[in-house]
Batch of 3 targets.
Target 1
Amino acid sequence: PPKYQAQALQKYMAQQKRRGPPPSPAADGPPKASKYHNSQTERITPSGAVLHFDSQKEARRYDHLAALEQAGQIRDLRLQVDFTLQLSGVIMEKGTADSADAARKLTAPIDPGPAGTSTVPTVKDSTATMTVEYRSDLNGGLAVGFWIGGFAIYARDPDTRENVMVYYGSLGDAKQYVSA
């Protein structure tokens, strides 16, 4: 009812008056340091364009790549190019990498098993999430059981159109057996 709305509005206005004006952003003190304590950096290209980098390390990496391009060792240098990653398949892994460092160096599974399945990846705040699984009820089933030690996710290279392993996940000591 309007009577109670007016009464609630009067209480709210009185409360705001007691609190005083909201603090200004400048009163909060000096600006916070960035999370990684980086400092933004600029570079000027030979054509006069100004490039802005979020860190000095990123700018140094650009300097190195620009020198490689100038020397003819690489070509078509572009910055932060958007592209769509086209996943092309999942392969179950029977083996397991000995260490995280060994897993990082893999370009293919150690002991490839049958194909797996996955959900369509979802992306939120630059983090991709998907579910990978092996379904023994697909493709006529299994003739022989096996231990799943991990999985490899493949994507299609946009330049060569070849399938390339882009992620390797290891189950470590928690291998799972799939019966036939």
Target 2
Amino acid sequence: MVPPGTPNTAAFMTISNSGSSDRKLLQAESPVARKAELHTHLNDQGMMRMRQVADIEIKAGAQTELKPGGYHVMLLDLQQPLKEGDSVTLTLRFDDGSTKEIDAAVKKPQTVMKAPTPATARRDEALSKKHLLRPLESTRSHAAAIAERRKSGTSCASKQASAKPKHPSAVP
């Protein structure tokens, strides 16, 4: 749940299905919100966008995690301020007609990014060496070079066209 004074919030949880048939979460309700919707985040041309979904599938014998950046229950037009430590009742309705009432704890959103693990730090360093990730200074100097070319009327394409192509076996 998000901080006080916000008109909307999101609920995150893990839903388990111990049955032998797949289930779908179809709807959520809460007395603290005028409306509750099922949402997900989608990558739309490089931009993460939140979208409403008709249902959220929970496979038989598995769990589906509702988490930031993924599926979640969006509570819209909150009817009362929420404080950290409060508990919010949610009623979840499934495709088999069953309902599950849960109490969700109101928590501050996590705004601190996790520190990279040694493995991800090594991966990022290796990618950086291959020029897949540019250091910030390189990005700034590249932007400055583009701005200079625009002022002088020289484009990157004209510089590339005049360069001799490398032999295919020389390309890493």
Target 3
Amino acid sequence: MAGLVPAIHELLTSIARHNVDARHKLGHDSVRFSRSSASLDRQPKGCILEFMSMDAVFKALADPVRRQLLDRLQARNGQTLNELCQGHGMTRQAVTKHLGILEAANLVATQKRGREKLHFLNPVPIQEIADRWIGKYERTRLRALSDLKA
């Protein structure tokens, strides 16, 4: 995972730089990281994250359908809405609503390619949850085990 995050950052930054020029020509953003985001180049320190609430990430991860969509994107990134709808007993509108919640939580990034909209997994918010919540409690447990050995 450590090597994956810099690679994703580089990919998304390159996509954003390319699309900043395209946005001026086309008059709209073609890469979105949430419903209200600006392009990557406008974010502080070139970071791919905008201010987001961990509550939105937890809310997005709380639903099993959204977790399944993330699993499918992890298995094969860059899928269209039609590809993500296959195998679900839901309408396109329902899948679109779930994807919107994932986008709002910054767990999914989208890129328009022609008439299609491709969906990409953004694992950074999940890693931040692991660092903030899991890592914090694991360190204490590891220290306790270390003290028992001594």
